[in-house]
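Retry 2 of 3 after timeout on previous attempt. Resubmitting structure tokens to design endpoint.
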């Protein structure tokens, strides 16, 4: 077989004349910029509309958009893509299996309406993953645009987080926390998106590929202030998981990507600027503390804004100077190699230095490790929202994880149903404020989907690792690559860092439920899975055959479109139900309210909320039999949910049937040991029974 790429990286003809091969000759950097900015803007928009508040309307339309876009891109691969091996198909198939199992868990879920929402989100994530794999298939030369989009999105979102602190009264008057948390409303998510942008900015500032447009120097120079913004947000979010993720990601990038000297200079400049902002912020009580008066917060924010503006201006100039110096200055190959090795050794020595410092402490090495391990694993430990939390290991994660493991034992193989953790948890803890998520993908998956879910996730991870190693050419030496292949491998390794970072953070948090954070690393993971080897024959087909001549492709495309449209329709139904339920609440007469509530129940037959509303409306219409029937339907629909039994028991109590009420309320109390309303109703029912017996 003839070589796919010449020494200069240009495509040459192969044995299949219908296939357009990958080559630098097809690269148009202007298109990369446009695509990167457009994709970055889409990620920013997604982050703003699908934040941690979980707004159903915004989340639903975001998921529908992802599903339809993913369907369209995958359909384009079938229609326009070149024939050949479907790289990453196994990984996509396993992701589809995970999606199907999530949807299947509705059948046994303790909260089936929540499981429906989880299945909708997983379907949207599958679409995003498959779309990235498809784009890598038909436009593999656009990999710089994906990295650029991540850098743009992370920087813009992080800049907004700081801007909210500059103008707190105008942009987020209700925020009483010192930690930066917008636009997600959750500081760990904000810190994570900033951390994910660091490898992308390091690559953007240090790349040496020949396809750089005329404005490339300015774009690389802007990476310096961007890094300062990102590092500042990572620290000022007070998120230890984000800080750990940033350190791990940057360290891996320096080890894997051979652009260390340029990146070291850029990181040093950006880090110095971030240090100025961080030191000022952490030394200003009215900026860093919680529950500070509006006037003091605003004054501190304005001062911080002026300092940040001046710092970023200086960093931009420094970035330009650094890029000019790097462009003009050249070092001998052996000198660059030795300095690069020195950087790697320095990174490797960081944990060694940490061990030395621990050994020199008053407790000694073993004593300090024992102390920190106790702080880390104790379920009674807690930590505040101050910046001091960055230096301690105390946290409440171990309690969440132990509770998650307990919930998982409830149904060892299949779990309690997707997003069922928070419902099942209440039967095992008297804590009046149980958490909604287990704060770990592994623990949450075990609780929700059991050992089967863990097995599918593990298989998916292994398949992705194999696909990613094939893409980056783990067995191929750098010396055997052309200049364009070498540049692409650097970019792909940057994507690997982003995916690994997201995985590290997801092990200790629940941020994968927030699409605005999760979609970006999913796109990176999908691209790595679908790209295939650097010398693979992929791209657009030079001569497209009609679908009538390709019955298999036509059938596959038809099925894909049908699944995509059906998926979007299914995602839409809970929102339609919620809208109908809202209309019932705003209705001007009982008949219209009943009609809307019945529509809500029909649109979302897994939810108990419409049944509760119908019961209340029937009560208002003096149809007590119908009111009781709706509550009994709710109990039959979700017998493992304490709320349904409470509603039934409370209704019976209102009708002065304490014996029937007590039976339902005791069941509710067994499912949720801490709900004060249930406890109060139980006491009232017992009192009425006692009074009736005495009378």
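Retry 2 succeeded. Sequence:
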């Amino acid at each position: 077989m003839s070589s796919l790429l010449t020494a200069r990286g240009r495509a040459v003809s192969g044995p299949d004349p219908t296939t357009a091969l990958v080559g630098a000759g097809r690269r148009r950097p202007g298109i990369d910029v446009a695509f990167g900015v457009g994709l970055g803007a889409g990620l920013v928009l997604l982050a703003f509309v699908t934040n941690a508040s979980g707004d159903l309307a915004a989340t639903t339309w975001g998921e529908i958009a992802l599903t339809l876009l993913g369907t369209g891109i995958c359909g384009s691969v079938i229609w326009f893509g070149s024939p050949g091996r479907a790289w990453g198909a196994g990984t996509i198939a396993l992701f589809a299996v995970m999606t199907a199992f999530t949807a299947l868990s509705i059948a046994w879920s303790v909260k089936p309406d929540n499981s429906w929402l989880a299945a909708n989100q997983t379907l949207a994530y599958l679409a995003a993953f498959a779309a990235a794999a498809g784009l890598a298939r038909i436009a593999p030369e656009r990999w710089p645009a994906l990295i650029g989009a991540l850098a743009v999105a992370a920087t813009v979102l992080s800049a907004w987080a700081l801007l909210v602190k500059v103008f707190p009264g105008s942009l987020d008057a209700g925020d009483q926390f010192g930690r930066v948390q917008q636009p997600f409303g959750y500081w760990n998510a904000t810190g994570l998106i900033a951390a994910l942008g660091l490898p992308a900015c390091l690559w953007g500032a240090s790349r040496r590929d020949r396809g750089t447009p005329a404005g490339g120097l300015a774009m690389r120079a802007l990476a310096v202030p961007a890094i300062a913004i990102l590092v500042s947000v990572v620290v000022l979010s007070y998120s230890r998981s984000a800080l750990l993720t940033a350190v791990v990601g940057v360290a891996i990038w320096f080890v894997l990507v051979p652009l260390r000297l340029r990146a070291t200079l850029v990181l040093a400049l950006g880090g110095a600027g971030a240090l100025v902002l961080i030191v000022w912020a952490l030394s200003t009580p009215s900026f860093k503390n919680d529950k500070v008066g509006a006037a003091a917060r605003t004054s501190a924010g304005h001062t911080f804004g002026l300092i940040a503006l001046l710092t970023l201006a200086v960093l931009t100039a420094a970035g330009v100077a650094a890029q000019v110096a790097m462009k003009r200055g050249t070092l001998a190959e052996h000198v660059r190699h030795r300095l690069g090795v020195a950087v790697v050794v320095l990174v490797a020595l960081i944990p060694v230095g940490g061990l030395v410092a621990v050994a020199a402490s008053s407790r000694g090495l073993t004593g300090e490790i024992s102390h920190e391990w106790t702080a880390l694993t104790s379920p009674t430990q807690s930590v505040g929202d101050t910046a001091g939390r960055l230096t301690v290991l105390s946290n409440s994660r171990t309690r969440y994880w132990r509770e998650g493991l307990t919930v998982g034992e409830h149904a060892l193989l299949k779990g309690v149903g997707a997003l069922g953790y928070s419902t099942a948890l209440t039967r095992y803890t008297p804590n009046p404020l149980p958490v909604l998520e287990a704060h770990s993908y592994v623990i949450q998956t075990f609780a929700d989907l059991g050992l089967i879910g863990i097995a599918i996730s593990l298989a998916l991870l292994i398949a992705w690792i194999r696909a990613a190693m094939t893409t980056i050419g783990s067995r191929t030496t750098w010396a055997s690559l052309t200049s364009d292949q070498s540049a692409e491998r650097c970019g792909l390794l940057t994507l690997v860092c982003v995916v690994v970072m997201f995985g590290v953070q997801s092990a200790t948090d629940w941020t994968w439920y927030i699409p605005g954070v999760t979609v970006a690393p999913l796109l990176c993971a999908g691209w790595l899975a679908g790209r295939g080897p650097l010398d693979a024959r992929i791209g657009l087909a030079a001569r497209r055959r009609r679908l009538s001549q390709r019955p298999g492709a036509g059938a596959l495309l038809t099925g894909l479109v049908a699944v995509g449209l059906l998926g979007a329709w299914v995602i839409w139904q809970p929102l339609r139900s919620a809208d109908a339920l809202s209309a019932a609440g705003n209705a001007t007469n009982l008949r219209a309210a009943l009609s809307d509530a019945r529509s809500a129940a029909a649109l979302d037959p897994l939810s108990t909320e419409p049944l509760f509303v119908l019961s209340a409306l029937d009560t208002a219409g003096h149809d007590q039999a119908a009111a009781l029937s709706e509550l009994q339907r709710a109990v039959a629909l979700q017998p493992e949910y304490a709320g349904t039994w409470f509603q039934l028991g409370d209704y019976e109590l209102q009708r002065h049937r304490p014996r029937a009420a007590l039976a339902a309320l005791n069941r509710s109390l067994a499912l949720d040991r801490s709900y004060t309303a249930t406890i109060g109703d139980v006491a009232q029912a017992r009192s009425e029974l006692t009074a009736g017996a005495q009378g």
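Attempt log closed. DSSP finds 27 helices and no strands in the chain.
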